Amino acid sequence: MPSASCDMLLEDIEDIVSQEDSKPQDRHFVRRDVVPKARKRNTQKYLQEEDSPPSDSTIPGIQKIWIRTWGCSHNNSDGEYMAGQLAAYGYKITENASDADLWLLNSCTVKNPAEDHFRNSIKKAQEENKKIVLAGCVPQAQPRQDYLKGLSIIGVQQIDRVVEVVEETIKGHSVRLLGQKKDNGKRLGGARLDLPKIRKNPLIEIISINTGCLNACTYCKTKHARGNLASYLIDELVDRAKQSFQEGVCEIWLTSEDTGAYGRDIGTNLPTLLWKLVEVIPEGAMLRLGMTNPPYILEHLEEMAKILNHPRVYAFLHIPVQSASDSVLMEMKREYCVADFKRVVDFLKEKVPGITIATDIICGFPGETDQDFQETVKLVEEYKFPSLFINQFYPRPGTPAAKIEQVPAQVKKQRTKDLSRVFHSYSPYDHKIGERQQVLVTEESFDSKFYVAHNRFYEQVLVPKNPAFMGKMVEVDIYESGKHFMKGRPVSDARVYTPSISKPLAKGEVSGLTKDFRNGLGNHVSPGSHTPAASQPGSASSGMVLRRPRLQQDCAPRTAVGLALLALLLAFFVKVYN
């Protein structure tokens, strides 16, 4: 639309400026009088940003970590290894959950209640704004469950990478490592056995001899997580045992989902391993064998009886029967019948006098009739097992047994109560009052009133809380018995024998580091030292234990690339100037 300003012809753009307008030099001098307006700072928001720096600026290796483990001794061993690696890196392992920056929750998938506790702990951690890393069999078996979404997961065979997962989680990222360990396509038993660890009890070493099993029990969810059988080599297991004894351990537990199946995937067997292990057990120290299913122990009964009679091996064996009904065992796909179980127990009782046989029973498995259950009751009444684990059946998601018509909940509960009543009707240790026994003291009782020891048959004996007894072999007179224990009075003139070949580590102390980590530390660690200063949790040098090899690995490729680029540039300049 035409205006008055458009009526005149402009020769130059500068003609737009009239005489009344300020000149450029005038505008320049005016700037000196301009006072910038101070903008008020949002102090509260600024302080919040100071407290919560960007994730990339978070320094890993200085936070506090709380570790909670549910389930079997295999899971407990995994938890010890993860704690050891994190402490070696510089993280502080704390027993105070509320004080921790991150919760590492190591789960069990055997029964519904264990998973419920796991789920509730995740919810609580989220309510308290804790960083979370999940481990164990639950997330390994079902990582896509809704309540696991967005959370970091470390798989059961990836525990040697727990530091990486924790580091990324602290930065605000979600990481999931669920793969299998393989060597030339062959599945391995899991992470290396020579990793740093913090033993829950410095006197007891838990060694996983294999992972997974050869069975396909219809009720078992653990199979989905641990998979098929994969055994560690005998030399690796013997080396781990030797290292443990050098660190003051006086008792070793061998564990796995089925110890009886050990070695079938690598051309060896359980008795061969056990004979190698007893050669390195110091006098007075003891070995406890873990759970074995009936089918695989049947092949080695003669050799197993000889080993269980060895003075440095507890005369104890955990053989789960689950049911005394062949029809129920068939539905469970247990691959043995009740006669097989009785044959194993009868043979061992004859060849290993006084042996303790522990067993498991499931009450209310789908299809179990009253008659089936009564067969199980008769078995307990006949053998009077001193250690009996009674479990009400819980259908686990994704298992074949969960799809079968279920026994009513009230019936399952009643059968569990009835079998528990039978178990508590007899006293397995009354006849031992007055005996004199050698016992190995390894821990404190739950009520903190006694020390807990075990005799030759891995029966629990409570002794007075004398600090001189801990980690020692003590001679006692049995003067009282209960359902699950005996009480022993130390013999006044008896010698207290020390089985450990060196002083035990302090509680919470990191066990020996690997050769790779030692090489990374140079001269800071002496070859014979089992408690290097660099392995102390929270120390500045401890952070170098895992960082240094990692930096060396990162720098090598970068150096190679840099040298290659330099060579190309030199070749280019030579060509140009020629």
TrEMBL record:
Residue ranges with Low complexity bias: 532-543
InterPro entries: Elp3/MiaA/NifB-like_rSAM (IPR006638), Methylthiotransferase (IPR005839), Methylthiotransferase_CS (IPR020612), Methylthiotransferase_N (IPR013848), Methylthiotransferase_N_sf (IPR038135), MiaB-like_arc_euk (IPR006466), rSAM (IPR007197), rSAM_horseshoe (IPR023404)
Note on cofactor: Binds 1 or 2 [4Fe-4S] cluster. One cluster is coordinated with 3 cysteines and an exchangeable S-adenosyl-L-methionine.
Gene Ontology cellular-component annotations: endoplasmic reticulum membrane; rough endoplasmic reticulum
Segments of this protein annotated with the region Disordered: 17-58, 521-544
SUPFAM superfamilies (UniProt xref): Radical SAM enzymes (SSF102114)
One GO-annotated biological process of the protein: maintenance of translational fidelity
Protein EC: 2.8.4.5
UniProt keyword terms in alphabetical order: 4Fe-4S, Endoplasmic reticulum, Iron, Iron-sulfur, Membrane, Metal-binding, S-adenosyl-L-methionine, Transferase, Transmembrane, Transmembrane helix, tRNA processing
GO molecular function: 4 iron, 4 sulfur cluster binding; metal ion binding; tRNA (N(6)-L-threonylcarbamoyladenosine(37)-C(2))-methylthiotransferase activity
Reactions catalysed, as given in the entry: N(6)-L-threonylcarbamoyladenosine(37) in tRNA + (sulfur carrier)-SH + AH2 + 2 S-adenosyl-L-methionine = 2-methylsulfanyl-N(6)-L-threonylcarbamoyladenosine(37) in tRNA + (sulfur carrier)-H + 5'-deoxyadenosine + L-methionine + A + S-adenosyl-L-homocysteine + 2 H(+)
Cofactor(s) demanded: [4Fe-4S] cluster
Domain MTTase N-terminal: 63-171
Protein name: tRNA-t(6)A37 methylthiotransferase
